[in-house]
Amino acid sequence: MLAYAIRRLGQSLLVLLAMSFLVFIGVYAIGNPVELLINPQADAVERARATAALGLDKPILEQYATFLARAAHGDLGRSFVYNVPAIQLILDKLPATLELAVVAMAAAIAIGIPLGLIAGLRPHSFIGRAIMAGSILGFSLPTFWVGLVLIMVFSVHLGWLPSNGRGETVLLLGVPVSFLTADGLAHLAMPALNLALYKLSLLIRLTRAGTREAVLQDYVKFARAKGLGPGRVVGVHVLKNILIPIVTVIGLELGSVIAFAIITETIFAWPGSGKLLIDSINQLDRPVIVAYLVVIVTIFIVINFAVDLMYSLLDPRVRLGGAEAGD
Amino acid sequence: MSALLEVDGLRMHFFTKAGIVKAVDDVSFRVERGRILGLVGESGSGKSMTGYSIMGLVDPPGRIVQGRIALDGRDLAGLDEAQWRALRGNRIAMIFQDPMMTLNPVLRIDTQMVEAVRAHHAVSRESALQRSREALVRVGISSPDERLRGYPHQFSGGMRQRVAIAIAWLNGPDLIIADEPTTALDVTIQGQILFEMQKLCRDSKTGLIWITHDLSVIAGLADEVCVMYAGRIVESGSVDDVLDRPMHPYTRGLLDSVPGRNLRGEPLAQIPGSTPSLLRLDAGCAFRTRCRRAVDECRSAPPARSPAVGRTLRCVNPLP
Amino acid sequence: MNTIHEAAPAPVDAQSAEPPVESPWRRLWGEFAESRLALLGLGLLVVIVLVALAAPLVSPQNPYDLAQLDVMDSKLPPGEVSPEGKRYWLGTDDQGRDMLSGIFYGLRISLGVGVASTVLALATGLVLGLAAAYFGGWVDAVIMRIADIQLSFPAILIALVLLAVLGQGVDKVVIALVTVQWAYYARTVRSSALVERQKEYIEAAQVLALPRRRIVFRHLLPNCLPPLIVVATIQVAHAINLEAALSFLGLGLPITEPSLGLLISNGFQYLLSGKYWISFYPGVALLTTIVAINLVADQLRDILNPRLKR
Question: In CA terms, which of A120, B281, C143, C242 is 20 to 30 Å from C101?
Fold first, then answer.
């Protein structure tokens, strides 16, 4: 078990290294950011000085080496635009993004799994088919368009919810969160729902498929033969079996939700790291882009790793090994 | 006094898109307290489906269309689901073929046993655990506490089946239906389990229906036997009568197919052809296409007759 | 005494009469048509494709021909008639462009980019997947490792970064989409090929000493197709969706090739002032296209799934 964990860790670090290299090289090719930051009338000397100051005149591999060295110390460069450490910018905005992602995921789970269970237990009933049709709609709808429609309906037409920004925050363990205030919730409602829609549909389909398969298994028949009521058969026997693959999917999808938040943040002007990324791309703020990607890749790797571990913990067949000898 | 279980004219059909499958077609038999009935047939003969019908576990597109199933004189036909649930695992219990699949792999053994008790009796968890322990000991498991804390995959096949049997016994049922429970096990384990089951049933006066395709098991275990083919009972009677003096050509064929009965050097006997698809049965005797003794009259379904006391037979040209 | 038949199991009377042999395409269509929803999806799709192909012919106006525009007609709501008597069924945008025409042209581009990138990704993934399956060893390991790593990151992120690096343009968008998608095909083909490879007909072909290329293309490939078709259909929808999202973010197609995503993005700023139609209707068009594709894909997946034996 430990050997497995260490091996996965090693692999993850390798991936991180490779990604950082690719990211660095790639972003380098965007364009020359110097042009943006200095006076267009500056002469060659000025330009040269600015270039040297930003370290842009050295060969690229040397730049990468410097980057790695500094990164090991937690320094991922300074933003060209804001002139603060890039990592600082990202970490400032990250809580907002994480809050959005987690709330969206929670909503998707809370709504998706029960609906999927119903659709799986009664696949040919009206409600079962309605749920499935709804789920097809849910993941066909382009997320950004749904966001627009939500704004249209709830902000412009009905005026119930604010259409942009984040609400009031309070500090929870030193991190500002907004879901604990009414204003915060009002601001959180639409973006979270928007973000949750796609995952919701996915979860419904997954849960339905798992339930349909589980219900055909012999252990369900046996449970019924024992005289157990449907509540227990579904709630304990079926659920515990289908949850294992679903939980792993949820874990993996969490990373994806963080990525999709980029779009949602743009629509709802949610002050998270996604919006920061888009702005940085448009402004050619290279250190911020690199810092963002490094942070995201790290988060992904951590999530994947955690999911791997969690799977082996959840399934008793994996956790406890095989059959004893003899009888 | 009525028998423990009376099945009369049971018909169970599957209504599929491809047609109607008559899985159980006019099946009748009785089981007395403390007696063991063997239900023998190849796969597709309807024997398992008969067992499910008695438990009320037939799911759509299957349905019982006709017939009477009476437990201790009480007709089970009109029961609603709640009443069925009160019976299952309580008065009638079932043991299935593959314990790896029938025990839930992600739940502990004690969970699965305790819930079977508490579904029918409002007792404390501790008391249910105690009952589970006793049941495990009764089926020959020596260190019950260790087993209770484990998961199904940690045990061998024989052990798992003993657990399944213990679960069946938990609430002291009147009738146990065992659907090929030893087919997947080693022969030695099979022998032990057969012996234990027989003893338990006789001691507690529990009726047992043992479903199998293996005649040799029936020979050693059962008191009465019903031979099924394509959903119908073709022959039934006491085990000694039917196995020593079979009347139906199919029963004869089954007996001859058992390799042990052959003399060295002689070709193995077999029943030519294969079981017909239940979708394409016509009105006549389902066995006639494979039967050496088939005559013109076999084209219409032979009625069930009683050629001797305690025996039934569906054949117009039986063995002499 | 009645006759006694011999033991030979002659199929007596009512037993089976074999149904006539059907061509596999016929059968495919028959099974496909069992779902009315799928037929609806297919019908919608056909209409959409026809409209997109014939956009210049069916549009009331060419919205990108400046001569046809009248900026005085800008931001008219749907159904309005301009002073000159032109009826704008879905309204106009800020430049006076007819939304309906804009949508038709936009469909063209959205579909075009989606299909083109899917086809290219399919080809790439097919070659790489087959290579991985057939050659095994380190070729397999390298290709699959790259595919796995790529698949563990969300598509939108990879596409974003690629476009940030490559810049704008149709070709660059297609490159980004292909990069994001090839791995699905490669993985699907590889697992199919690995399964098929073990089967006897391949062994038979090898025993007959057929050239490798022939074995791979004429024998292995056709049997790997069913799951590929399903994946490809679903992926077209994903590609269209992704391109729309990227264009919406301003990183996708340039303004000269406005896909539906760009149209939606364009209208975003007018949303708050109540001029919803500039964003709304292109979205409906996008949505309909994707739903139609998904309906078809769902049914295809059900009928081509070997585990749901019918």
Answer: C242
- CA–CA separation, C125 vs C179, rounded Å? 10
| Chain C residues near residue B249 by CB distance under 8 angstroms | none
Q: Is the peptide bond before B61 cis (omega within 30 degrees of 0)?
A: yes
Report the amino acid identity of residue A228.
Answer: L
Alpha-carbon distance B252 to A231, whole Å? 48
**Which DSSP string do the residues of B25-89 spell out, in sequence order?**
EEEEEEE-TT-EEEEE--TTSSHHHHHHHHHT-PPTTEEEEEEEEEETTEE-TT--HHHHHHHBT
Mark yes or no for CB contact A327/B158 under 8 Å.
yes
Asked if residue C280 lies in contact with residue C99, where contact means CB atoms within 8 angstroms, the answer is no
Q: Which of B289, B292, B293 sits opposite C12 (nearest CB)?
A: B289
Which is it for the CA torsion B216, B310, B46, B35, positive or negative? Answer: negative
Decide if pLDDT at C264 tops 50. yes
- Give the separation between CA B197 and CA B215, rounded to whole angstroms: 17
Judged by a CB distance cut-off of 8 A, whether residue C161 touches chain A is: yes
The pTM of this model reads: 0.74
Of A217, A225, A228, Cβ closest to residue B115: A228
Read off the tokens for A308: 């791997």
User: Cα Rg for chain A, rounded, in angstroms?
Assistant: 25
Residue C310 and residue C303: Cα distance in Å, rounded?
A: 8
Residue B1 has pLDDT above 60, yes or no: no
Task: Compute how many other C-beta atoms are within 10 angstroms of the C-beta atom of residue A233.
Answer: 20
Residue C128's φ and ψ, nearest 5 degrees, are: -65, -40
State the DSSP H helix or E strand holding residue B257, giving kind and residue range, or none if neither.
Answer: helix B249-257
Indicate yes or no: CB of B282 within 8 angstroms of CB of C2: no
Could you give the angle at the alpha carbon of B4 between the alpha carbons of B1 and B10, nearest 5°? 115
DSSP-derived secondary structure letter, C220? I
Q: C4–B294: do the CB atoms touch at under 8 Å?
A: yes
C-beta separation of A245 from A259 below 8 A: no
What is the three-class DSSP state of B21?
strand
Distance CA B261, CA A100 (A): 75
DSSP result, A18-72: HHHHHHHHHHHTT--THHHHS-TT--HHHHHHHHHHTTTTS-HHHHHHHHHHHHH
B208-253 residue pLDDT tens: 999 998 888 888 889 999 999 888 888 899 998 888 888 888 888 8
Which of B48, B52, B106, B189 should we substitute to test contact with A (largest number of A Cβ atoms within 10 Å)? B106
Tell me if B292 and C4 make a contact (CB, 8 A cut-off): yes
Measured in angstroms, the CA of B144 and the nearest CA of chain A are apart by 13
